[in-house]
Amino acid sequence: MKIVKVKNLYKSYGSNKVLKDVSFEIEEGEIVGIVGPNGTGKTTLLEILMTLRKYDEGEVEVLGATLPEKADFVRSQIGVIFQEGGMYAYIKVKEALDLFASFYSLGKDRIDEIVEEFELHQYLNVKFHKLSGGWKQRCLLAIAFLHNPKLIFLDEPTTGLDPKATQILWNKIKGIKDDNRTILLTTHSMEEIDQYCDRVIILKDGMIVADDNPENLKMKLDKRYFNEVYFSYVEGV
Fold first, then answer.
1. What range(s) does the ABC transporter domain occupy (predicted)?
2. Which of 203, 215, 187 lies closest to 83 in space, CA to CA?
C-alpha cells in the first residue's frame, strides 16, 4: 500500500524556488530518511506532508487522502515529533499524556498501554524539563503514538542524545516499524541513515538527486560508508 504519493511537486517563496519537480512514493512499513544540505527543501517538504504548508503545483496524497483538501483527516491519522517537541516545560509526563489523549477522545486504558509500552511508569510525575534528552524523546514518541498513527514524522529525533539514549530510542522506533507503521524522518546522522533506514531520499537545491536503499547507493557508487555517498551527491566529491 502506498502511504505517501508525491508527483511533480513545486513550492516557492517569492522568487526562491524551494522544491522543484519532486516525485516519490512511500510504501507501508518503510522507514524513509530525507537528507540534504540546509536550505534544500527538507523542512518545507515535511511541512507539506504534515498538512502545515500548501504547495504551488503538483499532486500530494497521504494515507489515500489528497492534500490540502483532506488535511483534517490526515492530521487525525499521523504522529509528529519536532525537535524538543514544543512541549510545555513544566507539565508532568502524566499530564501531557492525559492532555494529548483528550485530543483524540482516548481513555485511560490506552494511556496505560502506552505507559507500559514505553516504560514510563517511574517518570509519570516528573516535569518534562527535568527529563534527560533520551527520556524526553521517548516521552514525545509515546505521545505521538497515542492514537495509533499509521504514519509518523520524526524531525532530528536523536539530536543531542548520547549513544546509549540514541540506541534505546532507535530500538523503540524499530519496534513501531515492526508493527507495520511507516516512519518518515530527517536526520543529519548519515550513520543512522545507513543503519536504520529502508530508503533514503537525498535532496539538493530543491530536487531529488537520489532515492534508494542506502546499501544499493553504496554499491552503485562503490563507497564503503554512506556519508561518502551523501557527499558524492550533494558536493560532487
1. 4-230
2. 187
Give the model's pLDDT for residue 22: 97
Number of domains within the chain? 1
Report, as an integer, the average pLDDT of 69-75. Answer: 94
CATH number assigned to the domain comprising residue 219: 3.40.50.300
pLDDT tens readout for residues 137-155:
888 888 888 998 989 998 8
Provide the whole-model pTM: 0.88
